[in-house]
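Support request from a user on the community tier.

User writes: "When I paste my structure tokens into the form, the page sometimes reloads and wipes my input. The last time it worked, I copied everything first. Here is what I submitted, just in case something in the input itself triggers the reload:"
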């Protein structure tokens, strides 16, 4: 396997639209980033994090020491929760305004980084709110420079132009996509992820798999998105069992993180459709629901639904999971069950009925999916023709295991 020749301790700069420091020990290269901030005349930054992981992983100890050594002042917003809200982005922005922040440093998984991206826009647009931003009330003209210190191997947000926040009062969870929120610099250090629990490890890895299944089968897909998708699934299937067996296995974390990064690039190019469009209403209604678990509940039914239109691509993409698929449209149910079997093997057996939803909720879920403009935009990317009927069918087929 090609991975055997990789020195995971050799930190490399991977250049996409973001300058990404990747490898074990990459957090120490925050010093290089701080020097570049200083060279740009940046002396004040807003730091956006969750409640504890930024300290527990050791990331903050390194970042704070380097900021102080470079005489870069900061304000710390450390109240981002899973499924973050527009209110949190507004609070972070207000803190940044108080110190006249010139850049944003986000430390965490998708939630803190997406909140930090949002604050970076709002700090460039005084008087605007996060709810306006996520309700398409204005189109940003730019954002402050963003530094992303990533603490999970799932979202890919450290290398792409997307952000997601919930609007609790309207029960919406929209997505935005703007070039101005590509992080200028990012850090992917596998050593910061050894503290992820088994559940977190599974869920973030499942998120990466969902990204590429959707990106490779969307109406906007391209050969790059498909190729990145194949590599992502191969790596997740190969290395997830090692990370679950030994959370401190840096080799496994390295390649799961690399897979996640590839997944972020894949959907940055190919976009998303059904699974993410249908999951956002789930976690908007139940903020305690892990995004990755919501995706896992939906994925087998989504694969079954789209397989007839994308059988050749999916048969190739899913080879590590379902090697016997031949790319025939009539294999749709078999493909969905194969994905379900892989999820079960990973220890994820829950369906919508297990996470608190009832069949009576389907009409509301369909309505939320169809009427939210950003989610309707995702549905436009789905293979075939996505409508209320196809969305309802996927929700219905996700209540119980496929049989």
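"...and here is what came back when it finally went through:"
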């Amino acid at each position: 396997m090609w991975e055997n020749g990789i020195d995971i301790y050799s930190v490399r700069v991977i250049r996409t639209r973001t300058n990404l420091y990747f490898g074990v020990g990459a957090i120490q290269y925050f010093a290089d980033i701080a020097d570049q901030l200083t060279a740009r005349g940046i002396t004040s930054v807003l730091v956006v994090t969750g409640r504890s992981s930024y300290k527990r992983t050791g990331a903050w100890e390194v970042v704070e020491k380097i900021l102080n050594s470079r005489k870069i002042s900061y304000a710390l917003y450390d109240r981002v929760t899973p499924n973050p809200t527009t209110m949190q982005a507004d609070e972070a922005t207000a803190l940044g305004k108080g110190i006249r922040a010139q850049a944003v440093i986000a430390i965490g998984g998708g939630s803190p980084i997406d909140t930090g991206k949002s604050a970076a826009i709002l700090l460039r647009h005084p008087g605007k709110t996060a709810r306006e931003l996520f309700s398409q009330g204005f189109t940003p003209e730019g954002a402050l420079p963003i530094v992303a210190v990533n603490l999970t191997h799932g979202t890919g947000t450290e290398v792409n132009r997307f952000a997601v926040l919930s609007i609790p009062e309207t029960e919406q969870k929209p997505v935005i996509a703007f070039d101005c929120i590509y992080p200028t610099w990012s850090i992917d250090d596998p050593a910061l992820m050894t503290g992820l629990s088994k559940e977190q490890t599974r869920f973030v890895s499942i998120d990466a798999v969902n990204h590429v299944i959707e990106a490779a089968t969307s109406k906007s897909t391209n050969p790059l998105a498909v190729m990145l998708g194949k590599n992502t699934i191969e790596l997740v299937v190969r290395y997830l069992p090692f990370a679950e067996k030994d959370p401190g296995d840096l080799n496994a974390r390295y390649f799961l993180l690399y897979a996640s990064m590839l997944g972020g690039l894949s959907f940055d190019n190919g976009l998303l459709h059904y699974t993410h469009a249908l999951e956002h209403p789930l976690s908007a209604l139940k903020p305690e629901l892990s995004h990755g678990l919501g995706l896992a509940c939906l994925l087998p039914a989504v694969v079954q639904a789209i397989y007839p239109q994308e059988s050749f691509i999916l048969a190739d993409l899913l080879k590590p999971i379902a090697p016997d698929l031949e790319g025939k449209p009539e294999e749709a149910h078999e493909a969905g069950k194969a994905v379900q079997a892989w999820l079960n093997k990973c220890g994820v057996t829950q369906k919508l009925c297990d996470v608190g939803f009832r069949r009576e909720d389907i009409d509301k879920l369909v309505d939320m999916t169809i009427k939210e403009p950003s989610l309707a935009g995702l549905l436009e990317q789905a293979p075939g023709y996505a409508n209320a009927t196809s969305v309802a069918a996927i929700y219905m087929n996700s209540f119980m295991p496929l049989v």
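Agent notes: The reload is a front-end session timeout and is unrelated to the input. The chain has a mean pLDDT of 97. The chain has two domains: 2-193, 198-397. Escalated to web team.
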